[in-house]
Specification:
The chain is α/β, with parallel strands linked by helices. The chain is 46% helix and 16% strand. The protein contains 17 helices and 19 strands.
């Protein structure tokens, strides 16, 4: 092999096997709480009656069966039915990135003011995902605050669908809105299970609770033959053990429990597993992503690769105050390590203030970081033709390669060029008004939002969705 491809590994084979054994010990001894009676009955049919404490203890053999029957590869399509990306469990494919995560607020890039997240913000966020090449899908960017709660999720889903053709990771807060959301998707795109472009995202309650809403949503998604993401969120020292080892084992046990349940509902049901490992700040009583939790993100990805299950990780959304240096640090670490690790999906880019505020500037910045991370991860070749012996011999000692054959071939593609910040000299910077890098990012973001290219069927989809929802609520 003459291709150089940087790859980051954090766990040895022996360490992976130990984490697996420890997770099985948690499932077999401590067990998980299962709230929904239908789900509990399905588990008890497979493992027998429990001890009467509401917990299900899952034997290792049932976990192995679930690993064997779950698909290791899932094809995701865009709304028009064209191939989007493939999620595979081998850990060797490049990660795919997505915009947004259920923020309650929106930071205006023009003046940095923070307001409640509204319907128009959902359309703008979806438009950014549609126009920026670094993003392969759209997660749910916010929770609409300027509409009644019983319809906000549905109108938000409509705005997402109309403003991008890229696949959508769908987060619906309440069970009452989940099936209607699937109905809306089916209305806008009949036969959506044939070429799925919508992926429901579901969370258990850490630690070790399969809550009723989650299993009911799993039932509904699997019944429609949709792939789903089963992802847990754990805070070390609060909802998980404070040690990285304890956090990794508990979160892995939860993911395996979700995997088992999905295969009990329907053998071969497509599922994506992953974690959002975070730290807990004892002083501020809030969560944050630290270098250590981003390391756990990679470890979780390697566990899923061991199982051959597609993976969904974390985005590195931070406690920054917008598109600032604090946010940038976390995003760079996350995106670069994701690109060279075993990470599959990277959803939820664009959140700050502990994912309470959606920042368009962060999305635009992250698009640039993703481009650089992918450039780094692409590596290079050591083949003889790439060494350029003829050029070396022709130029000889003391020569230069400005006019060499390889330079002529590659000069347009070999250099990374930022889409935000052009390389410039000190003199040009001064003559251009001494603009700061933050100003350039702000101007780029505002320009993008002012000139978004929308899908050709944008107006038609909005009209069809409005008619469908009006009939439901009127």
């Amino acid at each position: 092999m003459l291709d150089v491809r940087p790859k980051l590994r954090v766990l040895t084979r022996e360490q992976i096997e130990k984490v697996h054994r420890d997770a099985l010990a948690v499932l077999e001894n401590t067990g998980i709480a299962v709230e929904d009676q239908k789900a509990l009955a399905l588990f008890e049919k497979a493992v027998g009656q429990g001890k009467g404490d509401g917990r299900v203890r899952i034997p290792g053999e049932l976990v192995r069966q679930a690993i064997d029957t779950a698909p290791s590869s899932i094809d995701i399509f865009d709304r028009s039915g064209e191939p989007g990306f493939t999620l595979d469990g081998n850990g060797m494919s490049a990660p795919v990135f997505g915009v947004g995560v259920t923020n309650l607020n929106y930071q205006d890039p023009w003046d940095d003011t923070i307001t409640a997240f509204g319907r128009r913000h959902m359309g703008a966020a979806a438009g950014l995902a549609h126009n920026l090449p670094g993003f392969s899908f759209l997660s749910t960017p916010g929770v609409i605050q300027d509409m009644p709660a019983d319809r906000a999720d549905l109108y938000g889903l409509l705005e997402m669908t109309a403003n991008t053709t890229k696949p959508i990771v769908m987060l619906i807060s309440d069970w009452e809105g989940f099936v209607p959301a699937l109905d809306l998707c089916e209305h806008l795109k009949p036969g959506m299970a044939d070429k799925p472009s919508v992926i429901p995202y579901l969370n258990p309650i850490t630690p070790l609770v399969l809550n009723a809403e989650t299993t009911m949503k799993m039932d509904a998604a699997i019944a429609r033959e949709l792939p789903l993401i089963f992802s847990n969120y754990g805070m070390s020292g609060a909802t998980c053990p404070i040690t990285p080892a304890g956090t990794l084992v508990v979160l892995t046990a939860e993911l395996l429990a979700g995997l088992v349940y999905s295969q009990l509902v329907r053998e071969g049901a497509p599922i994506v597993l992953g974690s959002l490992p975070a730290a807990f700040d004892m002083k501020q009583a809030g969560s944050f992503y630290s270098p250590r939790t981003l390391l756990l993100n990679l470890a979780c990805a390697e566990m899923m690769t061991h199982y051959g299950i597609p993976h969904c990780g974390t985005s590195g959304s931070s406690n920054g105050w917008g598109g600032d240096l604090l946010s940038a640090t976390t995003l760079v670490i996350n995106h670069l390590t994701s690109a060279v690790g075993s990470v599959g999906m990277v959803p939820f880019v664009g959140g700050c203030f502990d994912s309470l505020v959606f920042s368009p500037e962060l999305v635009v910045y992250a698009d640039d970081v993703i481009c650089q991370a992918e450039n780094f991860a692409s590596g290079f070749s050591l083949a003889d033709g790439e060494v350029g012996f003829d050029d070396v011999d022709t130029m000889g000692p003391g020569g230069n390669y400005l006019m060499s054959k390889l330079t002529a071939r590659d000069f347009r593609t070999s250099q990374f060029s930022s889409r935000i910040w052009p390389y410039t000299s000190l003199d040009n910077w001064r003559s251009g008004g001494e603009k700061t890098s933050a100003q350039a990012l702000k101007e780029k973001t505002c320009d993008l939002l002012n000139t978004l290219t929308l899908p050709e069927d944008h107006d038609d989809l909005l009209a069809r969705g409005e008619t469908f929802l009006s009939a439901r609520f009127n």
